[in-house]
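new request in #modeling-help
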Amino acid sequence: MIRTNNLTKIYRTEEVETTALGSVNIEINEGEFVSIMGPSGCGKSTLMNILGLLDNPSGGEYHFIGTEVSKFTERQRAHMRKENIGFVFQSFNLIDELTIYENVELPLLYLKTPSSERKQMVEKVLEHMQIMHRRNHFPQQLSGGQQQRVAVARALVANPKIILADEPTGNLDSSHGDEVMKMLTDLNEAGTTIVMVTHSPTYAEYGNRVIHLFDGQVVTENYKEKFHV
Amino acid sequence: MLKNYLKIAFRNIRKNKINSLTNILSLAIGLSATLLVLIYVFHETSYENGIKDADKIYQVYHTSKLLPKLAKVQAHSAEELKNRIPEIENATEFQSEELKIYKGKHLERTVNNIAVDNSFFEFFDIEIVQGDKRNLLPNLNSIVVTEQFAKSFFSSNPIGQELKLTTSEGIKEFIVTGIIKPIKGHSQIKFETVVSENIYRRIKESNYSFDAAMDMYCFVKFKKSNFSTILTKIREFVSLVYTLDDGLEMGYGLFPLKEIHLKSDLLVQLPGCSDIKYIYILLSIALLLLITSNSNFISLTSANFIKKINEVGIRKTIGADKKDLFTQFFLENILIIFISFILAFVISFFLLSTFNNLMQIQISLDPFTNYQAYIITFTITILIALISTVLVSRIMAKQNVSVLLGGKIFVQNSKSYLNKFLVTCQFAIAVLLISTTIIIREQVSFIKNKDLGYNIDRLIVIESSLKSQECNSFINEIKNYSGIENVSRATWFPGKLIGHYIGENEKKEDIPVHCLNVDNSFMNTLKIKLINGRNFNDLPTDTNCCIINEAYAKFFNINNPLTEKVFNNPIIGIIKDINIGSLKQNIEPMVLYTFSKRSYGASFIGIKIKPERVKESIEFIMKMWEEFSPEEPMKYSFVEDDLNNYYTEENRLFNAAVITSILSLIISLMEIFALTALNVEKRTKEIGIRKVLGASVFGVVNLFIRDFSKWILIANLIAWPLAYYFMDKWLQDFAYRIEISWWIFALSGGIALLIALVTVSFQAIKAATANPVESLRYE
């Protein structure tokens, strides 16, 4: 589903050139749950941004669902994104001015899903996430755990092929963190591919593969079998 | 989707109350000014549009050396011109006057009457509601009334009913023979009643001479011929028919009908003309306010956008493309603008009567009749929304979603430069307007307080229609009343029109000489200073003598005036120069005669009343007047008011300048207020860190003040030379004017700076005194 060849990302200012990613080669297959780990500043979020088509790489190739997308324009990336990818962020990134229902509904609006179908899909996912009773509340009225559930619901509502989760438990206490991890595992078991960035070795264990990054390079890749040994 | 955008826009307005309110209110002020001014402009430029072929119609005016352009010509000119010049398709003429209507013996009201020739109704395409279309005015005592007049005056069908009017030939009874509609749309030709011009029994053959009365407004309609051909033919006609007297070079000119309302410079023109100058002044005011409020809108919208970067990032992440975001921002802007538009209508509704009073006009806000003004204002609002959306979208388009999601966009510098540029423009406009207002105020105050050479305190003037002997008896009756200080009769008092002739000096230059007839008390009543010689007295020889002013001696180079004559009339005295009218004019030569000489105009009675006895004295004078002239109510005015009428335009301009300056300053302050609020919010963390490191409250406040002060000072540097240039040009209209001094600019700059600093400090102090832990925690 995802394949990168010598993927690089370099940030340039007038005086400084910083290599965030240097020759990253990874491959993620459909149905996998991959965790990405590494210290702060190692390039995890940069890699996630590129994998999520939020940013273009500076060099190398990126094949997403069989298409080379590294040179895509913003318009092409936006199109690819809304059809295939669901995002979950550490800081939830819900729109404060919209209710829970409206936040979850938003991806379907951009996909121009017909109104009746939209309603069904939103209600189904809200019920699945057990936040239907909060549908008319605004994000600030919810706890962190609940907000992240909404974010997962929003990521799921359009039935994406892959979910990219950037430190989804980073702003949550352990019980809410466990809850979110269980949701992601359930989704993966139901067939959704998941790529997750995390600092926590415990939560990384939920994945069937862990990729370790250091200074913008992949240093190790551990499969679950080995991981548990 | 649209619902989602609108929902979020409404919630945004609610969330950012200060910002939204500032934005909506300032834009509403700008739009309200635009709407009112556009309605006014369309109203003023629509005059005579209701008349068929108005472009082909011209007013015929009279020219001579004495009176360069006179709107009235001699009777029967229309008929003569039509008969002699084949290029003229039709011609008409009418006399316009205010007549009094009586019911029984009581004066009911005055009415705008016109006395017309046979072509009038056809010429102006007048719609006839009732009456014989071929012959509306069959007899000399026939009268036609407008529908509105008929409704207000008669309780039943007016046809065949009697109307009693006072014409210049006494009270006459008329029979209503027709009902008509007024000229369609707005027109300078206004009337409520119409009679035949034949009631004045003019004898055609004796008309074309210098002494014939010029009392008809004459209009001609061209065939397809060229303007100059017709004008030449009219001039040839005039040179044929006029008895030219002493090379007075009389002639006729043509003035386009559609330009009468705004551009006429003819004397005794149809009443109610305006000046194109007001259109330009008001359009400039509206434009300035619109620029100020729009830059406010653009500046606040784009500043507010910084707060929404994260939201844009989220939307882009989950699938929004450029078009989606453009539509969202456009709709959000449109919503604010739409609310502002509604508020602008409400503001205009409340300002309408003040505006009408200020401009001496009657306009309404009716969207159907003023649809053009609404369409333009609405188009402007759409354009504002588009501009601000494009500005924001351009910034958005350049950024990657990952950058937007971080909430930190790299546009801070260019964005704040845009804001500072807009703030500078706004304050430049505010300072320009404040300086302009102060200069106009100084000049108005200067002309009101300048010594004119006479005293007008408690001086009233009566327009006298009494015959000479009756007038003297009336004066004798009232002058002994204890509340009256002095009474005088003259053909001129300050504020009234003065007669003149054209004299010629040694260098053969034309010099206008003002002439008036006065009695012995004139100089005493007005407290005019005699600097040489003596006043008139009752000596029989004085009837041939005259008194001149200093300017006369100067202009005609007379060294010993008391030994000289004016047209064989010995000069017996010289008075100090006085300003006869507006201070826009220089002092010109003047000659005073007694009443035994030829009369130079209508007769006035000036009465100086003792202090604190004004009310009872006027009551006494009115009572006496009723005894002398029971049919003619006393028409009087205070000279002070008459003189003020010369400065109506300046007073209007001053009021408009005050209102505009205040509005412009309020809008600019609103922007500063909202921008400081955003700035404080943006720099919360910085303030916290600075305070932790030991910054004082003043130090933090200074951060914000320093920035704005710099730009306001630049605004002053832009505004001062502009204000000087425009106001110096305006002052050139006055023969007597103030010097524009430096303190005016310092004061206006100071006012703007002070108010701005107070506004900024209000919020900056709040931020500076907050607990630093709070600000750091929230960051």
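bot summary: The first strand of chain A starts at residue 2 and ends at 12.
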